[in-house]
């Protein structure tokens, strides 16, 4: 959590007055239960983390897309994900919109 706060603070310092902030973040456990991967957020965690420095306008569900990792033995093992019509992996996430007050 400290790294998340440091990141949000650094962006806030660098941003001009009135700047907009858009964050596309993974939801919790985007690769499935028990799989290594990013530490995702709940919608509330994302809002609360960013709201320490920014005025949060909206947090809404989103989908993150990725190309499949091809290994010698095939796809990355154990990753649970839906695929779109082009074969891209689809992971749950959130899109946050905020502005610097």
Automatic annotation (TrEMBL):
Protein origin, superkingdom: Bacteria
Entry protein name? SAM-dependent methyltransferase
């Amino acid at each position: 959590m400290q790294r998340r706060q440091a990141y949000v603070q650094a962006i806030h310092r660098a941003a001009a007055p009135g700047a907009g902030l858009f964050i596309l973040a993974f939801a919790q456990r985007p690769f499935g239960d028990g799989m290594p991967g990013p530490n995702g957020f709940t919608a509330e965690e994302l809002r609360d983390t960013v709201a320490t420095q920014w005025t949060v306008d909206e947090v809404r569900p989103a989908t993150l897309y990725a190309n499949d990792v091809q290994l010698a033995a095939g796809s990355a093992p154990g990753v649970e994900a839906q695929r779109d019509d082009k074969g891209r992996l689809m992971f749950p996430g959130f899109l946050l919109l905020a502005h610097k007050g």
